Amino acid sequence: MSSKILIIGAGGQIGSELTTKLREAHGTENIIASDINTRNLDLVNSGPFEIIDAKNFNAIKDCCKHYNIDTVYLMAALLSATGEKYPMEAWDLNMNSLFHVLNIAKGGTIQKVYWPSSIAVFGPTTPRDHTPQHTTCEPTTVYGITKQVGERWCEYYHKKYGVDVRSLRYPGIISHKTMPGGGTTDYAVEIYHEAIKNGKYECFLSENTSLPMMFMDDAIKATIDLMQAPAEGLTIRSSYNLSAISFTPKDIYESIKSRIPEFKITYQPDFRQTIADSWPSSIDDSVARQDWKWQHSFDLDTMTDTMLSELKKKYL
Ligand code: SER
Description:
Layout: E1 5-8, H1 13-26, E2 31-35, H2 41-45, E3 49-51, H3 57-67, E4 71-74, H4 80-85, H5 87-106, E5 112-114, E6 117-118, H6 142-161, E7 164-166, E8 168-170, E9 172-174, H7 187-197, E10 200-203, E11 211-215, H8 216-228, E12 240-241, E13 245-247, H9 249-257, E14 264-267, H10 272-277, H11 286-291, H12 300-315
Parallel strand pairs: 1-2, 1-4, 2-3, 4-5, 5-7, 6-8, 8-12, 9-11, 10-14
Antiparallel strand pairs: 11-13
Helix pairs in contact: 1-8, 5-6, 7-9, 7-12
């Protein structure tokens, strides 16, 4: 019998592309997409879809039972910038959705869980360059706190109850299909859209703010590779450091400008600057590279080429 997979938060930036990739790999009928709303019509119309509020334990449980789900990807979350505006909502969604899925998995019906963590688990006291897998984590955002605590619970459920939960600390993810929402790294997506649409961009981070980033194709590959890796090889059950590229707003601007010479940028840092300043500028992901042979493919220039050619198809 083929695996039945539920994706919670399938309408989001990562969830939408993960759904497409998993449907290609396992067959559309085996991938149940779910989200709290039906805004992403491509998703709703392209295969099995259920409306699920990730905060609703019974909705998740009933769906798992109905479809005989054995694997859950929990992609619903409030990100860093939105979390600072709505701290209690971020805590409520990010923590309770995780508990719901872990508790259903503990009951034995779900065999495998994927839950994303983030570079937001780190904070101002963390070493900023080549941040190691095991290091000081004193996050200063609500989002970061939920991810750090979530990591502890994942490891706990694995050790105590044998739940096969796997996780990655995503850096900022850049993609052209679905817009991100409410993150501090979102500028690195917006900048490409604005370069094509308006030829100029006002950046909410300062020009030399270096952050770890990754192109979507690499993020999806990492996610699926980790989920397919043999359990015995996995030494981390909290969340793996994951890295591809690091760049500043100035670097990405220059990469775009070399292809669109008239492109202009201005800098107007807002409250997200403080968040970015508390995060690492680069990540040491050697444990992931060793345990499950993680390798990225996209650098800044190959990403810029892909982003610009895909967005030109959309806008021009
Ligand atoms: N992209 C996320 C954010 O900026 C980090 O995980 O909030």
